[in-house]
């Protein structure tokens, strides 16, 4: 590899990070600023420059998906032998290898989920808990082990941590002790104990420590704001007295403190390593300026240590549609309206898998599942059983592997669909939730076949089986062509073209249990994470009551203050432009929805636009979008085109006053739009506008 070629295409801050080849290095990376790009290019650059060999690098992250993505990037950069793993994957590999030497005897069985053993421990203590109670108890045990709290210290430790136990503290302590005894007696090992044992093995056996540290000399830790004390203990064991470590993260995306994560290791990195290099990535390649403005505004009033390291994002994408802020009378009305808006987006060309509905609690999912089903929109719920552990997927993968030998010359996609048809892949989704979930799983495999065929024309069943094997090994589930329903926590690390943040009321956002300042600030960061998942379309909504006809006593989330029209903080001097009241030019009512404000009239009031002009504008937009290979709404949204057709601007100044026509779009499309409004054809050089980057690789 040519070291200089590895650095091509990086922005100045990413380049600074990639050139900082020796640790300690701290990269503070805001949402959508290309942190994965920066660290993979830094690793490849270090290999190409001869600073370190591939086999001596350990890149650690938190999810198998992120680790798989990192390995893929490194392969494409010419560094395929770099180890990119989760903390747990790296630990189990080392523990398994050195177990005979360090401990001896049979290796313990690894517990994938604590629930069953926690239930037995609780029963042994005389505790009768439902599934929710068992999940809460398992969470407390995980927090305790991650923060190195023993059963005997639990009661005083939660007081010190300002934590509220989900049940009497002595009951948690008793069940925790019983759980640990069960694991010891039955030779079981959970993830936390695995990390602890690996760290202890390195600390207590100098020969093993020497071998591990000789193998790994160059460390990169992604999402460092999510590291808990136990993971930090293992990282320190790997490092020893060395400091060749690069950490990457964003303190304002710390949302797992309930599980023991702390941003303190990230925010205190410079103090721990006074000679460290610190790089800040703030160029946001993921989201439009409109979305970035909301994201920055969401943290404007943040407090605490994380807020002191707040990164002000700078949007790099062209203008997009304005965010929507919508208030509803009740939850069913909110869900129904969101489903209608999603259906409209899909009709306008946004793929269903590029749309997400995000909520604070999993209990909110049901209303949106029903509303989307009623609207005939396919969806998938994130956070359920792991994809490759589902019975129907295990059966399908086994069948597809077996079919690779006898596959004929038929196209790959048709072959896969024919194989999956007897297992339940019908042309249309069936009725009933369980049948539908099974169908969605099989449809995701069929979609994967289409993706493989599109990426590799002429791909065979052998190629598809190899792709399946790689994904099973890394738990990299294929995407399903349906709208994603997910909690805000499970949405971390993902992104979509359109995001609907729903249920934004006090008591849900922030959650009612968030009482201390620190807890409220974590809820604010969770809201920020939700906002920054959106590339183009962002909708924020709330309802005043739970049920139709109920008392409208709910209040919009405090995190919307200063963002939504007419919210309290908008009375300030700096926000006068946002606070401007827009009234319908036909009936005079105050307009709150962005699309109506753009048109300057209510959606139900009669339009007075030139229909022929609107059709010509749409035809021009379609041609422009095709030339630039972007969705039509990237050029102008339907609402903006309709507003142009209603106002028929005669010059740049008047065109610039229309919402959705920002400076960038004026420069790119202004002359063409004005020509169309004047009844003329745009000049040849104006017909397609300026080539447009759309979504860029930098965002990853």
TrEMBL record:
Can you give the residue ranges of the UvrD-like helicase ATP-binding domain?
8-288
Question: What residue stretches are annotated with the HRDC domain?
Answer: 607-687
Sorted alphabetically, which SUPFAM superfamilies does this protein's record hold?
A: HRDC-like, P-loop containing nucleoside triphosphate hydrolases
Enzyme category, top tier: isomerase
Catalysis: reaction(s)? ATP + H2O = ADP + phosphate + H(+); Couples ATP hydrolysis with the unwinding of duplex DNA by translocating in the 3'-5' direction
Name all UvrD-like helicase C-terminal domain ranges: 292-536
**UniProt xrefs under InterPro entries:** DExx_box_DNA_helicase_dom_sf, DNA_helicase_UvrD-like_C, DNA_helicase_UvrD/REP, HRDC-like_sf, HRDC_dom, HRDC_dom_sf, P-loop_NTPase, UvrD-like_ATP-bd
Keywords for the protein's UniProt record, in alphabetical order: ATP-binding, Helicase, Hydrolase, Isomerase, Nucleotide-binding
The enzyme's E.C. designation = 5.6.2.4
Listed GO MF terms? helicase activity
Q: Where is this region: Disordered?
A: 543-573
Output the superkingdom of the source species.
Bacteria
Chain sites annotated for binding ATP: 29-36
Instruction: Spell out the family assignment given in the record's similarity comment.
Output: Belongs to the helicase family. UvrD subfamily.
Please state what the protein is called: DNA 3'-5' helicase
Q: What organism is recorded for this protein? A: Streptomonospora arabica
């Amino acid at each position: 590899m040519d070291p200089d070629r590895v650095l091509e295409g990086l922005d100045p801050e990413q380049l600074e990070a990639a050139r900082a080849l020796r640790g300690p290095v701290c990269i503070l990376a805001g949402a959508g600023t290309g942190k994965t790009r920066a660290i993979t290019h830094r690793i490849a650059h270090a290999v190409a420059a001869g600073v370190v060999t591939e086999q001596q690098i350990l890149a650690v992250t938190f999810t198998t998906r992120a680790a798989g993505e990192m390995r893929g990037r490194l392969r494409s950069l010419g560094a395929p032998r770099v180890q990119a793993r989760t903390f747990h994957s790296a630990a189990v590999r080392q523990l398994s290898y050195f177990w005979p030497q360090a401990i001896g005897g049979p290796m313990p069985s690894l517990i994938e989920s604590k629930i069953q053993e926690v239930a037995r421990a609780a029963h042994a203590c005389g505790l009768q808990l439902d599934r929710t109670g068992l999940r809460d108890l398992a969470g407390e045990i995980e927090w305790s082990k991650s923060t190195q709290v023993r059963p005997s210290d639990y009661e005083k430790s939660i007081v010190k941590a300002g934590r509220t136990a989900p049940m009497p503290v002595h009951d948690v302590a008793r069940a925790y002790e019983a759980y640990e005894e069960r694991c010891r007696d039955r030779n079981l090992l959970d993830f936390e104990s695995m990390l602890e044992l690996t760290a202890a093995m390195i600390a207590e056996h100098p020969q093993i420590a020497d071998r591990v540290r000789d193998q790994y000399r160059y460390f990169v830790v992604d999402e460092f704001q999510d590291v808990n004390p136990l993971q930090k203990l293992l990282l320190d064991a790997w490092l020893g007295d060395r400091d060749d470590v690069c950490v990457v993260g964003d303190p304002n995306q710390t949302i797992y403190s309930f599980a023991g994560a702390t941003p303190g290791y990230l925010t205190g990195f410079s103090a721990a390593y006074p000679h460290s290099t610190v790089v800040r990535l703030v160029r946001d390649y993921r989201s439009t300026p409109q979305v970035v403005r909301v994201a920055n505004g969401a943290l404007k009033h943040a407090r605490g240590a994380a807020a002191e390291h707040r990164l002000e994002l700078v949007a790099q994408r062209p203008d997009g549609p304005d965010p929507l802020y919508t208030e509803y009378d009740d939850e069913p009305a909110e869900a129904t309206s969101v489903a209608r808006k999603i259906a409209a987006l899909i009709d306008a060309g946004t793929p269903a898998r590029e749309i997400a509905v995000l909520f604070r609690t999993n209990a909110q999912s049901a209303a949106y599942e029903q509303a989307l089903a009623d609207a005939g929109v396919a969806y998938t719920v994130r956070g359920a059983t792991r994809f490759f552990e589902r019975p129907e997927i295990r059966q399908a993968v086994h069948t597809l592997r077996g079919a690779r030998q006898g596959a004929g010359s038929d196209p790959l996609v048709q072959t896969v669909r024919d194989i999956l048809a007897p297992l339940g892949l019908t042309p249309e989704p069936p009725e009933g939730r369980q049948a539908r979930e099974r169908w969605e799983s099989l449809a995701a495999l069929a979609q994967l076949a289409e993706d493989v065929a599109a990426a590799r024309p002429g791909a065979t069943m052998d190629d598809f089986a190899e792709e399946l094997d790689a994904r099973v090994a890394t738990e990299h589930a294929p995407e399903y062509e349906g709208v994603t329903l997910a909690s805000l926590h499970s949405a971390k690390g993902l992104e979509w073209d359109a995001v609907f943040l729903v249920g934004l009321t006090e008591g849900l956002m922030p959650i009612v249990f968030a009482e201390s300042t620190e807890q409220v600030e974590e809820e604010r960061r969770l809201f920020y994470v939700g906002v920054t998942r959106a590339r183009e379309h962002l909708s924020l909504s709330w309802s005043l009551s739970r049920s139709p006809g109920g008392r409208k006593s709910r209040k919009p989330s405090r995190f919307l203050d200063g963002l939504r029209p007419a919210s309290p903080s908008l009375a300030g001097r700096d926000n006068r432009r946002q606070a401007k009241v827009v009234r319908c030019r036909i009936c005079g009512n105050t307009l709150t929805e962005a699309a109506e404000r753009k048109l300057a009239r209510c959606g139900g009031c009669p339009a007075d636009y030139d229909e022929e002009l609107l059709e010509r504008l749409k035809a021009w937009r379609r041609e422009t979008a095709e030339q630039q290979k972007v969705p039509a709404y990237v050029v102008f949204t339907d609402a903006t085109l309709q507003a142009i057709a209603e106002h028929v601007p005669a010059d740049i100044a008047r065109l610039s006053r229309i919402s959705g026509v920002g400076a960038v779009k004026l420069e790119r499309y202004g002359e063409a739009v004005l020509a169309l409004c004047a009844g003329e054809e745009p000049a040849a050089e104006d017909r397609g506008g300026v080539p447009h980057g759309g979504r860029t690789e930098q965002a990853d």
